[in-house]
Amino acid sequence: MSIVLEEPTAGTGAITLRLAEVGDGAALWRLVRDSRVLDLNSPYSYLLLCHKFGDTCLVAESEGEVAGFVTAFRPPDAPDTVFVWQVGVAAQARGRGIAGRLLERLVELPACRDARWLETTVTPDNAASEALFASFARRLGAGHDVRPYFDRDHFPGDDHQPERLHRIGPLSPAS
Ligand SMILES: CC(C)(COP(=O)(O)OP(=O)(O)OC[C@H]1O[C@@H](n2cnc3c(N)ncnc32)[C@H](O)[C@@H]1OP(=O)(O)O)[C@@H](O)C(=O)NCCC(=O)NCCS
User: Fold this and answer.
1) Alpha carbons 79 and 42: distance in angstroms, whole number
2) Distance 150 CA to ligand 1 centre (A)
3) How far, in Å, is the centroid of ligand 1 from the Cα of 155?
4) Which of 2, 45, 109, 137 is the most buried if burial means most Cβ atoms within 10 Å?
């Protein structure tokens, strides 16, 4: 699947959205490393997500480079939900609506379009991410509930912020 979001204009390349593939795993790992905000997981985990959950993961490409991504899965214990694991956009590509469009396209995917809820967790200090999910819910006219999820104590060590669950929906089948 390949969806062109932006036609090339002077000074900017086209942004293409497509399903993630195993060949994207290393680029996702690098983008997360360079974000200095997202939790950096093992390279293997990004390969596995792209390889085994590629029907629920998207990348945004600009001039052949990965400029953004969303990784997600359908939780086995909540079949009406799509759970967003991470979303990230390279620093130089931010502020162009890429993350918002990644979420919109995600819930339209064949593997997600029957989902009634989109869930994710966000640390309370991540204003950009809070704004992203609030804006997504507004555009869809969906509810947006935020509640505690993982406490500090759940994490090893004591340098991790708590993670709050953002639950957005109900999503309409036409989303
Ligand atoms: C969060 C992130 C993915 C947003 O990507 P983006 O492509 O720049 O976001 P968009 O342009 O689609 O903006 C979506 C909404 O979020 C808002 N937003 C984006 N960055 C923001 C910021 N730094 N502060 C406040 N609001 C912000 C936008 O104004 C927009 O809201 P609007 O539709 O009401 O105008 C990007 O900043 C990023 O990768 N950050 C580091 C990683 C991260 O924190 N990921 C999320 C945790 S899972």
Assistant:
1) 27
2) 22
3) 25
4) 137
Tell me which residue of 49, 78, 54 sits closest to 1, measured CA to CA: 54
- CATH class of the domain comprising 2-169: alpha beta
| Tens digits of residue pLDDT in 64-123 | 999 999 999 999 999 999 999 999 999 999 999 999 999 999 999 999 999 999 999 999
Helix orientation angle between 25-35 and 43-52, rounded to the nearest 10 degrees = 130
pLDDT of residue 1 exceeding 80? no
Mean pLDDT value across residues 48-62: 97
Question: What distance in Å separates the CA atoms of residue 89 and residue 67, rounded to the nearest whole number?
Answer: 6
**Is the minimum distance from the CB of 88 to ligand 1 under 6 angstroms?**
yes
Quick: pLDDT tens for 136-146. 999 999 999 99
How large a percentage of the chain has pLDDT more than 90?
Answer: 86
Is the minimum distance from the CB of 90 to ligand 1 under 6 angstroms? no
Residue 2's DSSP bridge partners are: 18
How far is ligand 1, taken at its centre, from the CA of residue 13, in Å?
Answer: 20
Which tokens in the block code for residue 168? 């957005």
Check if 91 has its Cβ closer than 6 Å to any atom of ligand 1.
Answer: no
Laid out side by side, the sheet with 2-6 consists of 2-6, 15-19, 58-62, 65-73, 81-89, 117-122, 163-169, 143-150
